[in-house]
Write a structure and sequence with these properties.
The protein has about 400 residues and is α/β, with parallel strands linked by helices. The protein is built from 14 helices and twelve strands. The strands form three sheets. Strands 2-8-7-6-5-3-4 form a seven-stranded mixed β-sheet, with helices on both faces. Helix 8 links the parallel strand 5 and strand 6. Helix 2 packs parallel to helix 12, helix 4 runs parallel beside helix 10 and helix 11 runs parallel beside helix 13. The longest helix is centred in the last third of the chain and has 24 residues.
Length: about 400
């Protein structure tokens, strides 16, 4: 009898788990590990959202099965958000569905639209589920290097030309996880043209759209005709510090939304109704809390770039998201991101996410999450400086900001 199942054999070891095991072992020994690895928001969910959850949960008629597509009020709240934020009109009945977070939305979209042998274009590096959600559905991934938005665009034609059969769908993710890059509306215009020319669906991940430090990032659905071929997945997790609540959305093309809703109807009964009511209150209510969280992340970003730069590690300043995408310092680069991350946690007690976990083209970087306060971030920088000195690395570099053309265009 085979001991491994087919789909499990297609999944490589989860490299983040090796760092997590080391972190747990060190903490069990009493070590003070500063965790900049997992993008798990440490900020509290705004009180008015929690209060709405509690108020609704006390009602006796809300504890049964909910609606798999999402309660009508929450879908209407999402449509209202898209209208005021992007100027995009959505039909909440046919162009929006509530998901159990953006991760579940992407995974079930993959199940809905991909068949064994289908080819999916995915950026590399990128969030692991962008590839592995489709791999679990039986599809084949055509990776395109995406160190910058321009590089990803430039590689799309070649990916189509050399894919057999032709690709079914492609993925975009901006603000990007893990690279923290942003794009302007001109990028999405090119994507829509490309997708229509080659008859390819577009799946856009917009989970970090409200964590930005310059101009607000756009939505692909702002491009005229985008809803003909695109669906966008977003989440409440980062915007409102509701990661554990597991609530998100897919919006856009009716056919894609319907396919996702049909798959979900067989798999779940939707999120707990009080959570959906509270999510509606978040979208419809005051947004000062979002502005305040954004400013906290901005302060943390500035503290990280400045303090790590003084420690000798030049980290490009991210223009969006709650992450920094950091090149491995030259003296350690040959060891790759996993070994560097393991040494960093063992010797400096600072946990980061190995870039290899986001694809082979991420192996010269690590991702740092802005999930510790400024004091802890500066403490992490001091630990890193001592780690460098212990390994004979003393060069000091000033922090710098790296922007590509597409990134600059978003701010112009």
């Amino acid at each position: 009898m085979r001991l491994e199942f087919h789909k499990i054999r297609r999944l490589p070891p989860y490299v983040f788990e090796q760092v997590n095991r080391q972190k747990a072992a060190l903490r069990a020994e009493g070590a003070d590990v500063i965790d900049l690895g997992m993008g798990n928001p440490d900020l509290p969910t705004p009180p008015h959202i929690v209060e709405k959850l509690c108020e609704t949960a006390r009602k006796p008629d809300v504890h049964g099965y909910s609606a798999s597509r999402g309660i009508p009020g929450l879908r209407r709240a999402l449509a209202a958000y898209y209208d005021r934020r992007f100027g995009v009109k959505l039909n909440p009945e046919t162009e929006a569905v509530v998901t159990l977070g953006s991760k579940e939305g992407f995974a079930n979209l993959a199940q809905a639209i991909a068949a064994p042998g289908d080819v999916i274009i995915a950026p590399n590096p990128s969030y692991p589920l962008h590839s592995f959600g489709f791999i679990m559905a039986g599809a084949t991934i055509r990776s395109v290097q995406a160190h910058s938005p321009e590089e990803y665009l430039a590689g799309l034609e070649r990916a189509v030309k050399h894919s057999v059969p032709p690709p079914t769908a492609m993925i975009v993710c901006y603000p990007a996880n893990p690279t923290a890059q942003v794009v302007g509306l001109d990028f999405y215009e090119e994507v829509v043209k490309f997708a229509k020319r080659h008859e390819i669906w577009v799946l856009s991940d917009l989970a970090y759209t409200e964590i930005y430090y310059d101009e607000p990032p756009p939505s692909i659905l702002q491009v005229p005709g985008a809803k003909d071929i695109a669906v966008e997945v977003t989440s409440m997790s980062k915007t409102y510090a509701m990661a554990g609540w597991r609530i998100g959305f897919a919006a856009g093309n009716e056919r894609l939304v319907a396919a996702l809703a049909r798959v979900k109807s067989y798999l779940d009964y939707g999120a707990f109704t009080p959570i959906q009511v509270a999510a509606s209150a978040a979208l419809n209510g005051p947004q000062d809390c979002v502005d305040e969280m954004r400013e906290i992340y901005r302060s943390r970003r500035d503290a990280l770039v400045e303090s790590f730069g003084r420690a000798g590690w030049a980290i490009p300043s991210p223009r969006a998201s709650m992450f920094a995408w950091a090149p491995i310092p030259e003296p350690f680069r040959e060891m790759g991101s996993l070994e560097f991350s393991m040494r960093l946690i063992r010797e400096a007690h600072v946990a980061v996410a190995p870039g290899a976990g986001f694809g082979e083209h991420g192996d010269q970087h690590v991702r740092l999450a802005l999930v510790e306060n400024e004091q802890r971030i500066r403490q992490a920088a001091r630990n890193v400086r001592r780690f460098f000195e212990a390994n004979g690395v003393t060069e000091k570099k000033e922090p710098r900001v790296v922007q590509g053309r597409a990134a600059r265009s978003a701010a112009e």
